[in-house]
Design brief:
The chain is mainly α and about 475 residues long. It is built from 17 helices and no strands.
Length: about 475
């Protein structure tokens, strides 16, 4: 159990609460630097720089996710049985940091001179290392919110701070990743980047991710030092195996809703980011506008995250806020699917951000409530197990989005070396007339998949009513800790 160095009153002060919120919040800043960069640029890097076949990439991503099922299980078994002077969750976040950083650097370091099979093997191994490191860091991040505070209102503030920093991480990646890639490739902008060799482009991606990996290590170390687990789990009335835990958590109807929402949220999100570089390069024919668009996407989410927390504090349910955000995002994704105008597309990305702010903030806020409901039902804290399954579905969503994008690339017969296609892109000419099927494939990946995912997520949240019951559940759990 976390060894507390101060009197109980210290942990109720505003100064400590803000230290806790910010210390935890920056962890998702680091995670988004790692994971969002991979989901946004990795597919394009594999096909256009490393020269790996799109269908092979899709198969590799799906296979890696099934392996993740076993690694997630292994990690969660240890987490739910961890009890140290640093707490239950923080040690795992710290231990996963170097693994994640090494994986970040390796996934964008495929030796371009190797043969196809060797390059695919490198991609598979490095992608697994990055995923395993991300598992170690990310699985504790949802259940730790329960350990950081017992107050549901404070948990919402902690979760909101996390989502704000998450989007700040996305904004940092959006603003600086492409310029850094261009710089390290010896280019000054998108047009000159298109003219450099594939080897130079590969150097740009590799060096950029080494820089980001170093930043991730520093931030997660600071997170470990700033946070304290002050609310331990209630006394367990029973011990059970992992399989028993799985049986219990799937008896929680709210957890089933959460899992469905996780799939829908992240399939739409990752599919959009995975297709973004193709969309700006070929559909809009203006890759130089991508940093502005993706920055607007993340910047617009921040005020609505703060607004969502304030509205929740005023009595508007987390369920209703998530439904509203899903409706806004659905409308925005329809616009992205229809338009080929760079200005309209950029504004629509800002609209996606506004809706995403509501969805992300409340998504991370309801997770500890749902975990508490399971503990209330069965007398055992299974937050690690629940977040492992949820985190695995997050990765499945990433794999599905990658497989969908690669399948669409195969369907439209896209190849990175199509001369006329690249000439149109270099000239800043949209490909809609010359390559209508390729154009449609990128639009489906970027907008249509996300629309469907948003609508499904909205429908899933309609029967969610835990907000009405949570006060009594929390009171019962507090009594069990005495």
């Amino acid at each position: 159990m976390q060894v507390l160095k101060h009197e109980a009153s210290y942990y109720q002060t505003s100064a400590f609460k803000w230290r806790q919120r910010i210390g935890f919040g920056i962890s998702d800043y680091a995670c988004n630097l790692a994971y969002l960069v991979a989901n946004t640029y990795l597919m394009f890097y594999y096909t256009n720089c490393a020269g790996i076949n799109a269908s092979a990439i899709g198969a590799m991503m799906v296979a890696t996710r099934f392996i993740d099922a076993f690694t997630d299980y292994m990690i969660v078994v240890f987490i739910d049985r961890t009890d140290t002077k640093h707490g239950r969750y923080r040690p795992w976040m710290l231990a996963g940091t170097p693994v994640l950083a090494v994986g970040m650097a390796l996934v964008f370091a495929v030796p371009v001179g190797w043969g196809g099979t060797a390059k695919l093997a490198w991609a598979f191994i490095s992608y697994f290392i990055m995923s395993f490191g991300y598992t170690m860091v990310n699985i504790p991040m949802a259940p730790i919110v329960s350990a950081l505070s017992a107050d549901p209102a404070e948990r919402t503030k902690i979760a909101t701070t996390r989502t704000v920093f998450s989007n700040l991480g996305s904004m940092t990646a959006s603003m600086f990743t492409l310029p850094l890639i261009w710089y390290f490739a010896g280019a000054s902008d998108a047009n000159s980047f298109n003219a450099v060799s594939d080897a130079a482009k590969a150097v740009g991606y590799r060096n950029t991710n080494i820089i980001l990996a170093i930043i991730v290590v520093v931030i997660l170390a600071v997170c470990f030092l700033m946070t304290v687990e002050i609310n331990p789990p209630s006394r367990q009335v029973q011990k059970s195996s992992f399989l028993d835990d799985l049986k219990h958590i799937f008896q929680n109807k709210y957890y089933i809703i959460l899992l469905g929402f996780t799939l829908s949220l992240f399939i739409g999100y990752f599919c959009m980011f995975g297709a973004m570089q193709y969309y700006y390069t070929y559909v809009l024919a203006d890759p130089g506008a991508q940093p502005l668009g993706s920055t607007l996407l993340t910047a617009c989410a921040i005020p609505t995250m703060v607004l969502a927390a304030a509205l929740n504090g005023k009595g508007i349910s987390k369920r209703n806020l998530m439904i509203f955000g899903s409706a806004v995002d659905s409308a925005a994704y329809v616009i992205l699917f229809i338009t080929s105008n760079v200005t309209i597309a950029t504004v629509a990305l800002g609209l996606v951000g506004l809706g995403m702010g509501f969805r992300q903030s409340m998504y991370f806020s309801i997770m500890p409530d749902i975990f508490d409901y399971t503990e209330w039902q069965f007398g055992k804290n299974m937050g690690g197990t629940q977040n492992a399954v949820n985190g695995f579905l997050n990765k499945v969503a990433s794999a599905i989005s990658g497989a969908l994008t690669s399948a669409l690339l195969v369907w439209c017969a896209y190849e990175a070396n199509i001369t006329e296609l690249n000439e149109l892109a270099a000239a800043g000419t949209p490909i809609a007339q010359a390559f209508p099927q390729i154009n449609l494939a990128f639009k489906i990946a970027y907008g249509a998949v996300s629309v469907a995912a948003c609508v499904i997520g909205l429908l899933l949240m309609i029967p969610y009513d835990l907000d009405k019951k949570y006060a009594k559940i929390r009171a019962d759990l507090n009594d069990r800790q005495k």
